[in-house]
Amino acid sequence: MGRRVIRRVYIIGNGAAGAENQCFGLVRALGLSHLQTLYRVIRPKGGINMRLQWLPVSLHKRLENVRKLIYGDTLPTQIVVRGQKLMPLPAEVQDILEANAKHIATLSCEAFAKDGPSLVVASGRDTISISSSIKQLAPEYVFTVQIQHPRSRLDRFDLVITPRHDYYPLTSEGQKQIPWLLRRWITPRTSPERHVVLTVGALHQADSNALKDAAYTWHDELATLPRPLLVVNVGGPTGHCRYGTDLALELTALLLNIVPTCGSIRVSFSRRTPCKVSDIVREELGNHPKVRIWNGEGPNPHMGHLALADAFVVTADSVSMLSEACSTGKPVYVIGAERCTWKFRDFHRSLKNRGVVRPFTGKEDISESWSYSPLNDTKEAAAQVIKALAERGWSLPS
């Protein structure tokens, strides 16, 4: 039986916080964080490489090798995907290795007799070819989980975990938004298969134990603040949630309206927040006695905010930040949802229909609470992984 127990976990990441956090969250929910090793897909960076991020990683690397032959090795290669800052890593992660499908498949094969099968968890577009290749090279020794919709050929993975709004193109409303000539290129094109697990939002690490630890760690700084404590999480515009200084000005005006109903307000920005947005928020609210804006220095208070806030205001662009806030059971107000299009509008509609979010209007009394059934996507997805492993005759360590 020992040979059927998962004792190795390979996380395939791309350096993007939103993708890797989902992998860490799922592995944490499975109780396997102490067994995980992080591998990252490494793209060439610098110069013209910034314009080639849309290419498959393998082709991108080939072109970079050709460039080096012609011009010499003058540009650095970094473990970064799209120029984003790398996310803080869990304490269990000691080293980051370059993702190589043949290497990981070989490790899985060699370790099977002694340690049993391996679990591969990947998320992000650049990881798809790696995780699917591992599955192809070592099908009898690994169980592969791809988080987020891999666009095509879902049968390359043992399990796919993806939000319901990724299937928005199949709805009648979604079809109306796709030009006829492009419909064959828009995925998904078929209904979810048996091995596809649908979630409401994104997976994350903010489970009950993590929030208890954060509440203890941040108690002295946050628990003693005047209540209610309102936490404001500001993301950044995306292709389907476009905004700029207009949203920043709206946000600050609405926050000033509800300040009298708050004891304290804490504001945090994400890695994607443009300076033109954060500068306006700092200028309008930075000197207010009830407001504290995290300056990006020192430990990130995000988990402490999730644990100890009484309510949240979150910009509509971030599925991850909304998913985390909506898992706490505390009031969550959204600003900017009307600026979102395509499947992101469907995501916001699903949250509203479930009663887990309300639009931020500036007329709220933050001292008044309301309840809902918190999102529990990560735990539910972990249960589906355990079920799928059992069907294969494999299990987790007891």
From TrEMBL:
GO term, biological process aspect, one: mitochondrial fission
Entries under InterPro entries matching the protein: Elm1-like
Taxonomic superkingdom: Eukaryota
Pfam families according to UniProt: Mito_fiss_Elm1 (PF06258)
GO cellular component, as recorded: mitochondrial outer membrane
This protein's name: Mitochondrial fission protein ELM1
